[in-house]
Amino acid sequence: MRAWECGYASDYWMTFKQAKSAGGNVRKGEKGSLVTFWKLYDTKDKHTSDDITVPVLRHYTAFNLEQIDGITIPDATVGDVTVEPFAPVEQAEAILNGYAGRPKIEHGGECAYYRA
């Protein structure tokens, strides 16, 4: 959701430390996003030696790869992009064609969006 909210095309995120160790640099002035990580961890009770499961909670500040220089974005398109031909859904087209003053719809490009 944060990537969508900020308009990032990449789905990849890194901490500052991960970016540095991968040879990248977070651009000056970029603001990170809070990431909360939790899992259940199997361990032994210190007093009874019984098997127990405890929750582990951590939080980090992460940066989208579009905020980082020096790292190739894995999901970036390279070269020519093959676009599948558009195949309309007949039922959806029938509903759309039933609108008075229907909006103009264009197909193509590399991302979906609405523009008034």
Automatic annotation (TrEMBL):
<protein>
    <submittedName>
        <fullName>Antirestriction protein ArdC</fullName>
    </submittedName>
</protein>
<dbReference type="GO" id="GO:0003697">
    <property type="term" value="F:single-stranded DNA binding"/>
</dbReference>
<dbReference type="InterPro" id="IPR013610">
    <property type="entry name" value="ArdC_N"/>
</dbReference>
<dbReference type="Pfam" id="PF08401">
    <property type="entry name" value="ArdcN"/>
</dbReference>
<feature type="domain" description="N-terminal">
    <location>
        <begin position="1"/>
        <end position="63"/>
    </location>
</feature>
